[in-house]
C-alpha cells in the first residue's frame, strides 16, 4: 500500500456543515476526487488538539474493503485527488485521525463510486486531455 502526503490546497478557512460529509467523484480511469466538510463540533475537536492535525485518507476497493492506497493531509485541506488502479472498478474512501491518546478513529466513509475502465493513466490532474496530447 502506498502512503503519500498531500499539501493543503486552499488557504481559506474550512466551511462548516450541518453534518460531517465525505464525497468521492471519478475524474478519469486512474484518479478520483475526494472532498469533505466538517461540522463546527468536529472543527473544534481538531482545533483543541483532540485529533492530530493530519488525517489519513484510505482508498479501498468496493466491495470487500481491500486497501489500494493511503494519503496523509491536513484535516482542513477539504479536498484531495487520489489514484486508483487501472482497469476501472468501484472504490470508496475513509478519513481517519489519531486522537491525543494515540487511538486511530474512523471519522467518515464515502459512498462507493466507480471509475470507467481505461488502459492508460491520464495526464496531470490540472490538464485536460486535449492540452496533454498537444504538449507531447
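-> sequence recovered:
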Amino acid at each position: 500500500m502506498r502512503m503519500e502526503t498531500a499539501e493543503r490546497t486552499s488557504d481559506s478557512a474550512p466551511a462548516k456543515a450541518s453534518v460531517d460529509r465525505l464525497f468521492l467523484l471519478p475524474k478519469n480511469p486512474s484518479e478520483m476526487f475526494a472532498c469533505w466538510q466538517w461540522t463546527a463540533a468536529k472543527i473544534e475537536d481538531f482545533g483543541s488538539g483532540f485529533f492530530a492535525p493530519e488525517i489519513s485518507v484510505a482508498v479501498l476497493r468496493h466491495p470487500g474493503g481491500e486497501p489500494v492506497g493511503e494519503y496523509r493531509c491536513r484535516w482542513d485541506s477539504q479536498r484531495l485527488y487520489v489514484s486508483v488502479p487501472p482497469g476501472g472498478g468501484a472504490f470508496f474512501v475513509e478519513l481517519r485521525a489519531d486522537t491525543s491518546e494515540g487511538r486511530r478513529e474512523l471519522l467518515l466513509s464515502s459512498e462507493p463510486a466507480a471509475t470507467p475502465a481505461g488502459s492508460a493513466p491520464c495526464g496531470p490532474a490540472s490538464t485536460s486531455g486535449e492540452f496533454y496530447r498537444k504538449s507531447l
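The chain has one domain: 3-135.
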